[in-house]
Amino acid sequence: MISSLRGMNDILAEDYERFTYFINTATEVAKKYGFHFIQTPLLEETALFKRSVGESSDIVGKEMYQFIDKGENDVCLRPEGTAGVVRAFVQKKLDKAGGTHRFYYHGPMFRYERPQKGRLRQFHQFGVESFGVDSVYEDASMIMMASDILKALGIGYRLQLNSLGDQNCMPAYRHNLINFIESCEDEICEDCQRRKITNPIRVLDCKNEKCQSLYVNAPKLLDNLCAGCQSDFDKLKIILDQNDIKYEIDTNLVRGLDYYSKTAFEFVSDNIGSQSAITGGGRYDRLVEFLDGKATPAVGFAMGIERLMELIVMPEVKREGYYLGAMDDEAIDIVVGLAHKKRQNEKVNVEYKSKNLKNHLKGADKVNARFCCVIGTNEMNEGTIWVKDLENKTEEIIKMEAF
Ligand code: HAM
After folding, report:
1. From ligand 1's centre to the CA of 105, what distance in Å?
2. Mean per-residue pLDDT for 265-291?
3. Tens digits of residue pLDDT in 284-312
4. Is the pLDDT of residue 178 over 90?
5. What is the rounded distance in angstroms from the CA atom of residue 163 to the CA atom of residue 306?
6. Whether residue 293 has its Cβ less than 6 Å from ligand 1
7. 301 pocket-lining for ligand 1 (C-beta < 6 Å)
8. 252-144-149-156 Cα dihedral, nearest 10 degrees
9. What pLDDT, on a 0 to 100 scale, did the predictor assign at position 56?
10. Per the confidence metrics, is the pTM higher than 0.85?
11. 120 in ligand 1 pocket by Cβ < 6 Å?
12. Fewest CB within a 10 Å sphere: which of 62, 106, 259, 291?
C-alpha cells in the first residue's frame, strides 16, 4: 500500500468541517479589517526565499523542498506565504502605485522539519499582509485582528510581544551582542556559533538549556532601542491596553525568519503541547526593497491552521436538508425523481435500497437531515409522501406535488 509522505496529512470528514469553519471565520474577520484575497503559486524561485526569509534561518538553511526543474530552474515549494505576496506586490508594481494594500491568503506551506504532533511537513497557514502603512496603529490592528479571529473560534491564547529595532539601533546592538557571544563562545552550542556569524540575534531563542543559562546576561534588545523604535513600542503597548488585549513582553522573541524589524509577536496556546505557537508575525519594513521594490512599510502575520484545528470550539451542528427513502423497491424510482427536483433548492440525501421505517429514520439521523421523507406502498398508491421533521418531532403526509 502506498501511504502519504511523512508529515503530510489528508484532510477529510470532521477535520474538513473544522478546516473550512476556520477559513470562513478568519476570512470574515479579515474582510472586516479591509483585506482582499490574494493567491500566489506554491512553487517559486529558490532565490526569493533566500533573499527574504534569509539564508541564516533554519527554514532556508535546512527545511526547503528545493529542486532543479526540467528547465534547469532552481525552485522550491514555498515554506511560508509572506515572500510570495511581497514578490507579487512588487511584480504588479503596487509599490510604485503607492497607497495602502491589504491582502489575506491561505494554503499549504512546506517545510522539511522533523514531524511530530503539531509539526508537519505540509501544513496550512492563513496569513495577512499590509503594505504602505508605517503607523504603529497598523501593528496594533494586526494583533487585534488575530485576537478577533482566535476569539471568534473560542480559542484562548497568550500573546508575546517584542521589538527587534530597526537599521538605526540594530547595528550597535548587534555589535554588543557579538562581543557578548564571543565572551562565552567556548560554552555555547554549535548552532549558536554559526548564528553568531549569520544572524546573531537568533542565539536569543536557542532552545539549548546551557546556552539559555548563559544568555541571561546577554544585552537585551529592549534596552537598546533607538528613540523612534522605543516610542513606537510604547505606543503599541498603550493601544493594546486601551483595547483590552493582554500581552507578555518577551525580549528573547526573535522569530525564525530574518525579515522582521520593530514589532514582533507570537500567539501561543498552552493546550496543544510543545508546538505551542499558533500565530506569528510582525513588521518587515525593509523586505519590499530587498526584493527590488520601492521601500514600503509592511506588517503581517500567519496562523497555523492544523494547530488551531485542535483548539477550535465548533458551533453546534444544526440538522439540515432532506433524507429520502423508499419502503418498497417499486417506489425507488419515484424517490430518485423527487430528490432530483428537490435538489434544485435543498440539500438531499437519497437511500437507494428499500428499508423499513425504523432504518430510514436511523439513516436520516446519521446524515443529520432535518426531514426524513419516506414512500411506502400506501403513499405510492395515494401519490403522497410521509415527512417527519426530526427537529420539531412532528410528522405529516403530504401530496407529492406539494412536496
Ligand atoms: P511562522 O512563525 O514561521 O511565520 O509561521 C506561522 C505559523 O505557522 C506558526 O505560528 C505555526 O502555527 C504555523 N507553523 C509553522 N511551521 C509549522 C509546521 N511545520 N507545522 C504546522 N504548523 C506550522 C511565518 O510563516 C510568517 N510568514 C508570518 C508572517 C506573515 N509574518 C509577517 N507576515
Report:
1. 13
2. 97
3. 999 999 999 999 999 999 999 999 999 99
4. yes
5. 28
6. no
7. yes
8. 50
9. 84
10. yes
11. yes
12. 62
